[in-house]
Every structure is written in C-alpha cells, then in structure tokens.
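Severity: low
Component: inverse-folding endpoint
Summary: output formatting inconsistent between runs
Steps to reproduce: submit the following structure tokens with default settings.
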C-alpha cells in the first residue's frame, strides 16, 4: 500500500513538473512574441520607384501604441499602430509633416507574424493596394523581416 502511495506521489510530482515547465514555456513564448521593443530591418523587399531603402532601419514599437522608424541618413517617421493579434493584422498611421510620403494621416495596412527563431515579419500595403493577404512583395507592398534589438 505504501508503495502505491509513493508511486502516485511520484506520478503527481512528474505531472506537476511538466505542467510547470509548460506554463513557464508558454509565458516565455508569449513574452517573446510581443511586438513592443526595438527591431532592426534585416531584409526589405518592395517594387516601387523610387526605391525606399529600409534595410538597417530600426522600428520601435512602444507600449502606448506609438512607433518610430529611424533610417540611417534619411528622415525618420513616427505615428501610432494598432494590432489585432487574432487576425495577425497591423495598421501604421503616420503623423508629422514629412517632405516625402508617408505623410500625416497616411495608413499602411499590414499583416504580421513571428517566426520560431524570434524574427518578426511584416507585410504592409500603401497606395492603392488593400491589406496584403499573404507575405509577398509587389507594387506598393513592402515585405520586411526584422530582428529584435532589445
């Protein structure tokens, strides 16, 4: 009888350890998939004239739903963003008077996803295209791959 009690206690401890690991892993995964933070553009594809260089730029998403885009030796942008994590959509609304588009009030509708290695992929549409439905580049469709900096 005592042996069965020890066996059940050992089984319970093993199950409890697995649940703890799972919950700890789930919490870590959810945190690692937060968009909040600073990201570096590793790759960017867009069919447009003139091309707008984004590789090397940093995007910072703040917890207050604001963002900034800093591009080396080029103008920076700022605005607000809105996420729908269930739909995987992101909207970037620009503010400020910029000499080149995007201008005050312009909205880039997009989709986003996280990769298992922590990379973030964002595909945005600007101009006349509607929100992208797949992760492809094209005319007025910008496909960016980003790596977290902090």
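Observed output (run 2 of 3):
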């Amino acid at each position: 009888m005592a042996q069965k009690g020890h066996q059940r206690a050992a089984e319970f401890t093993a199950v409890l350890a697995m649940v703890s690991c799972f919950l700890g892993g789930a919490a870590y995964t959810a945190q690692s998939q937060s968009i909040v933070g600073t990201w570096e553009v590793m790759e960017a594809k867009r069919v447009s004239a003139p091309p707008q260089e984004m590789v090397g730029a940093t995007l910072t998403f703040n917890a207050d739903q604001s963002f900034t885009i800093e591009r080396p030796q080029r103008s920076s942008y700022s605005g607000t963003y809105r996420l729908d994590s269930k739909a995987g959509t992101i909207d970037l609304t620009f503010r400020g008077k910029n000499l080149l588009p995007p201008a005050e009030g312009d909205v880039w509708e997009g989709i986003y996803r996280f990769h298992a290695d922590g990379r973030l992929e964002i595909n945005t549409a600007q101009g006349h295209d509607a929100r992208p439905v797949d992760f492809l580049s094209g005319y007025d469709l910008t496909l960016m791959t980003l790596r977290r900096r902090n």
